[in-house]
Amino acid sequence: MHTPQDIPPTAPPPKDIPPDEYNPVQDPPLNPTEPDVPDVDPAEPPLKMAGF
After folding, report:
1. What is the rounded CA–CA span in Å between residue 20 and residue 2?
2. Residue 22 burial (CB count, 10 A)
3. Measured distance CA(36)–CA(42) in Å, rounded
4. pLDDT bucket at 42, cuts 50 / 70 / 90
5. 52: which of 16, 23, 37, 46 lies 20 to 30 Å off by Cα?
6. The domain containing residue 44 runs over which residues?
């Protein structure tokens, strides 16, 4: 009685997995965009080198 009331069937999944991992659609787009950063990667190196 204590187990089912304390941990419902909807609490374990969302509690165990954060909102980022729970959403497989937001994970893929955010993951490749952050590490890839093709817009900032190429623009940062030249800017840093020129200022140096």
Report:
1. 29
2. 13
3. 10
4. low
5. 37
6. 2-51
3-class secondary-structure state, position 18? coil
Q: To 5 degrees, how large is the angle CA 11–CA 17–CA 22?
A: 100
Against a cut of 0.85, is the pTM above it? no
Contact 27, 17 (CB under 8 A): no
Q: Which residue has the tokens 């204590």?
A: 2
Amino acid letter, 3? T
Average pLDDT, the chain: 52
Per residue in 17-29, pLDDT (tens digit) is 555 555 555 445 5
Q: Could you identify the residue written with the tokens 């089912």?
A: 4
